[in-house]
Amino acid sequence: MADKRADPRGVSDAEASELHSELKRKTARGAVMSVVGQGATFALRIGSMVVLARLVTPEQFGLVGMVTAFTGLLNMVMFGLPNAAVQSATLSRELASTLFWLSLAIGAALATMTALAAPLIAGFYGEPRLLWITVALAAIFIVNGAAAQHRALLQRRLHFGALVTIDIAALVASAVAGIWMGIAGFGYWALVAMAIAPPVTAMIGAWIAARWLPGPPKRGIGIRSMLRYGGIFTINTLVVYAAYNVDKVLLGRFWGAEVLGLYGRAYQLSNIPTENLHSAMSFVMFPALARVQDDPQRLRNYFVKGYAVFLAVVMPITIACGLFAADIVRVLLGPQWSDAVPVFQLLAPTILVFALLNPMGYMMQATGRVSRSLAMAFVIAPVVFVGYLAGLPYGPTGVALGFSTAMLILLVPCVAWAKRGTLITGADLWRAALPPLGSTLVGAAAAIVVGLLLADAGAVVRLLALTATLFGVHALTLLFGLGQKETYLDLLRAVRADEGRTAEAGSKL
After folding, report:
1. What is the distance, to the nearest Å, from the Cα of residue 18 to the centroid of all Cα atoms in its chain?
2. What letter does residue 76 receive in the DSSP assignment?
3. What pLDDT is recorded for position 217?
4. Which long-range contacts (CB under 8 A, 24 or more apart) does 320-323 make?
5. Which stretch of 349-358, 381-390, 469-478 has the lowest confidence by average pLDDT?
6. What b/e string do you get for 359-383 counting C-beta neighbours within 10 Å, with b at 16 or more?
7. What percent of the chain is modeled with pLDDT above 90?
8. pLDDT above 50 for 89
9. Residue 114 confidence (pLDDT) above 60
């Protein structure tokens, strides 16, 4: 007779093994699809940035950046309830419907608050053009509220292909709207259109893909625990977002729109690749880790393997930002953005710390440790803020240096705090990080040699050669020199094993 002790949900050993095998296959397939999708996303974002940087001035970028520093903070409120829905072990139709109406109500309230605050934002910066920019961007909150639970359902079902398709379609709509309006001479309104188009497209896509219509809201269906998790998650997200965006508010207030535009483009350019990879990892690993949160050993195995693969991709990107900054800025943004080069270089350590630290946040949130994540955010925020203030008198380069210094100081204690109470050890993380770090350094050394040989070549040729050398040598060293080939072959085998499986029923929550 089958043993029922193996799984906390009361299933047999065989059933538990099949459940975890299925989860492994779907997670592996989702990871590959997500990375491919984020590659397309990266190309679209970089491509639109290259074009818009030549159609819109740094000052106009700065104007929109002044507003999004505030609206982006409020938008973090929208993530709490959807993440609670994904993290929960069970989710009834009634509860999902109630969460939908709550999310929509929150979105409407935030839109109203933002529109009413528009005169205050314009007055804070002393810039009247911000009034109608703020009013226009306020509509995004309603759209995000209407889409939040549908995206959460797709993520719970591990329908990663649908999510990737939706996100790519949203970015295509954004690029088309922004570039068309930029060519037509709409200036900063092209950037406003770029901000509004993705959530509208994503909302339509999520409703179509989820095939779910919410019912009426109800009471007494277990909403309280969802609200607690969602509330703590929201506060945590708000604190982290504020900590990582006060720099833009300070620069905009004390140094003006043009300086903020330079800093903002440098930050975005350095952050886009790793931000895409963080998105890829979070929407695959978050639901996967939530599924095994009651199995500490499987949780450890899933996280460490995912962490190693993630670092293998993100480390060479971060190193490239530091080594090839001048060529990257010249090729992608143009010579008029040359003042952004030192800012771009100084932000590279910050982006590396994000790569090492953010996955620990996904792990804490997936396993219900949101209170610890919040406590960590309250430690990070003041340290980073002090870094900004120390560098503010020296302009954007000073703020970038202060930001990176603060993040390097925080890295080790935050990682140690995050893994406490799990089976994940410092040795696990070191073993996961060492191979990609070693192969990246070998690739960087080879790229430096190539750079010396091509010192007189054009920026485009040199950048292509340096990038190909860094990533090519890194991949060969990692797979063959450091013996990691089998790890990636195993990932591909899991993907192939899932290809013949039928998709989960669309009506299953």
Report:
1. 31
2. G
3. 80
4. 320/447, 320/466, 320/467, 320/470, 321/270, 321/345, 321/347, 321/348, 321/351, 322/348, 322/349, 323/444, 323/447, 323/448, 323/451, 323/466, 323/470
5. 349-358
6. bbbbbbbbbebbebbbebbeebbee
7. 23
8. yes
9. yes
